[in-house]
Amino acid sequence: MLASASTIRTALSSVVLALLVLGLKYLAYLLTGSVALYSDALESIINVVAAGGAYLALRVSARPADAGHPYGHSKAEYFSAVTEGVLIVLAALSIVREALPLFSQPRSVEAPLLGLLISAGASVINFVWAGVLLRTGRERRSPALIADGQHVMSDVVTSAGVLGGVVLAKYTGWFVLDPALAVLVALNILWSGYGLMRDSVGGLMDAAVNADTERLIRQAISEQAGGAIEAHDLRTRHAGAVTFIEFHLVVPGAMTVEEAHAICDRLEDALRLAVAGANVTIHVEPQEKAKHHGVLVL
């Protein structure tokens, strides 16, 4: 399953919106001078880079299989997601570096209404767009779009906390709240980046499908392999939107090639219905190769 043109357009739209939000947040920082709002704007710079990386990765993953890449280019999305996770972590460390000196020398925070409204407006844009990215990414099974959506949603959490802290710092006089909140935001971003890299590295390392998906696969094989004896040595892995499924199918020794082929066709159709983007490879074996374990045919 290749990245569709609409998926690529979604990623390109994410770049445009990231640039818009960056401009709004930096303007809010200039109006307020808040280090917390500066940290918010800094993360938006990372959003632009990450959205651009997701767009390029989707362009690469959309290429069909060729002689040099017989399994396609789907894993390009994981490289984008890992890179985005690294950028999230770097953004968090940069925020901490800016905030720490202000604990010993807190400075007053200006909170003009215009600056706060601009920052809030940018957050609303991000919240709506994050929902679009996450929904689209799950529907199209795109790690790059899901990663981008998670990153943008973490930016929404960041912005909400920052706005609250800036208002509190201004109207209570506790200016230390500004750097304190920036550090809390950085910790939240670090956690988000860790989760993103963990999931993406799993894809690069050919991690198996989750338990629910494996259960669907085993059920489809068991119900649709009528005429065969068993299926064993089931192996699965993800590569972007593609799920590779491989197993050995044991059939009676007297079965013709045509009959065995018909069972394989039926299994492939059933597995593609059960698991979107399934790429199925079946190795047919005679009865004496049975291992008497794996998936028993109903």
UniProtKB/TrEMBL annotation:
By its UniProt entry, which InterPro entries does this protein fall under? Cation_efflux (IPR002524), Cation_efflux_CTD (IPR027470), Cation_efflux_CTD_sf (IPR036837), Cation_efflux_TM (IPR058533), Cation_efflux_TMD_sf (IPR027469), CDF_Transporter (IPR050291)
Q: Using the record's annotation, list all stretches that form the Cation efflux protein cytoplasmic domain.
A: 213-286
Annotated transmembrane regions: 12-31, 37-58, 78-96, 116-135, 180-197
- Report membrane topology: Multi-pass membrane protein
The molecule here is called Cation-efflux pump
Ordered alphabetically, the record's keywords are: Cell membrane, Membrane, Transmembrane, Transmembrane helix, Transport
Which residues does the UniProt record annotate as the domain Cation efflux protein transmembrane? 13-205
Q: Which Pfam families match?
A: Cation_efflux, ZT_dimer
User: Listed GO molecular functions?
Assistant: cadmium ion transmembrane transporter activity; ferrous iron transmembrane transporter activity; zinc efflux antiporter activity
User: Family per UniProt?
Assistant: Belongs to the cation diffusion facilitator (CDF) transporter (TC 2.A.4) family.
Cell location: Cell membrane
Q: Is Heme tagged as a keyword?
A: no
Q: Which organism is it from?
A: Deinococcus irradiatisoli
> Is Mitochondrion found in the keyword set?
no
Q: Which GO terms describe its cellular component?
A: plasma membrane
NCBIfam families listed in its UniProt record = CDF (TIGR01297)
What broad class describes the main subcellular location of this protein? membrane
One GO BP annotation of this record? intracellular zinc ion homeostasis
